[in-house]
Design brief:
This protein is an alpha+beta fold. It has 3 domains: 187 residues, no CATH class; 55 residues, no CATH class; 45 residues, no CATH class. The protein is 26% helix and 14% strand. It is built from 5 helices and 9 strands. A hairpin with a 7-residue loop joins strand 7 and strand 8.
Length: 325
């Protein structure tokens, strides 16, 4: 299983999302390079609290089930609407036209809004670095006629009363179940809807010819014959997934699964301020004895963009293990 190396993506620029539409959208793609920030004009004197996300391994096999509305990174998504999934070209990288891979999902409900009582954002990206770099180049263009993206975000939202989940909060004790099953997923990636069925065993499902070919060459060529033999000697084969189990993907190239844990950034302010009191005299002393460094720092701080980057780095250093904020 491949690992996710954050250093490879430091040069990429992915901007934020549009504000939510008033109308309910079960699964809606969002253009990641569009952002209408009306909040900047109405900033309050007090800064809004910032929530940080940290990854950790799931504590229980059921921690990432969709009926628990989890925050996840890597592995396979826990679709909020398990039936109406993205399909067609929306699940493909616009550059190489291969299926996108799941990165993370964030549960961000708007409880004061009936149509968005449940609300999850899903992030997908192409695992090809060449596509990501081309995507970055596309974003430098001003209003391209046909935006080409290798990173896509989908938003899904549901009212409190819906066909998939109880209106009561989950118990988080391993007994929670959804109200019914979801659409069959791709046997290879476990991510997208498995609309295509293997012509041999009639059991394995795929989201694309690409994933069917990958599975065939890696393992299914042998498995298919075994399943066909079972079908010939029995009336039926149960190929379903329990409502209290996460579907296992055959692909070994998915990123390792983690759950995202939220913490308030203010919890790190006290610890950081105590460290700063010790470190500050050392920094001042060094600047006083090194005129050349002093000049460089002056030029550096004069650049607004660089200064903003320094401020951001200093803030992130309060909790360097954060993966989302």
């Amino acid at each position: 299983m491949s690992s996710f190396n954050g250093d490879d993506f430091k040069g990429l620029r992915i901007t934020q999302l549009d504000d939510d539409d008033e109308e309910q959208a079960p699964v809606e793609p969002i253009n990641v390079d569009e952002f209408d920030d009306d909040d900047d004009d109405d900033e309050d004197d007090e800064e809004e609290p910032v929530i940080l996300g940290f990854v950790e391994s799931p504590k229980f096999p059921w921690s990432s089930l969709r009926q628990l509305f989890p925050n996840l990174a890597g592995g396979v998504p826990a679709w909020l609407d398990p039936v109406n999934l993205p399909s067609g070209k929306s699940i493909l990288c616009d550059l190489c036209e291969e299926p996108l891979q799941f990165v993370l999902q964030l549960y961000a409900p708007l409880t004061e809004k009936e149509s968005a009582f449940h609300r999850t954002l899903f992030l997908f990206m192409c695992p090809s670095m060449s596509c990501l770099l081309r995507d970055q180049h596309e974003q430098w263009k001003r209003a391209p006629e046909k935006p080409m993206r290798s990173v896509k975000v989908f938003r899904c939202q549901l009212p409190r009363v819906n066909p998939f989940y109880s209106s009561e909060a989950p118990k988080h004790d391993g007994t929670d179940q959804p109200l019914g099953p979801g659409a069959p997923l791709c046997t290879w990636c476990g991510t997208w809807k498995g609309d295509k069925v293997c012509g041999g065993c009639k059991t394995a499902r795929y989201c694309s010819p690409k994933h069917q070919a990958l599975h065939w060459h890696r393992a299914h060529k042998i498995e298919c014959q075994q399943l066909r033999t079972v079908l010939e000697t029995s009336d039926s084969v149960d190929n379903g997934v329990s409502l209290t189990q996460v579907q296992k993907a055959a692909s070994k190239s998915l990123w390792k699964e983690f759950v995202l844990i939220n913490e308030d950034e203010s919890e790190y302010d006290t610890e950081m301020s105590e460290t700063d009191e010790v470190a500050q005299p050392m920094v001042v002393s060094k600047r006083e004895v090194d005129d050349q460094m002093k000049s460089v720092m002056k030029d550096f701080e004069g650049d607004a963009d660089k200064n903003s980057w320094v401020n951001f780095q200093q803030r992130v250093d309060k909790a360097p293990e954060q993966v989302v904020r």
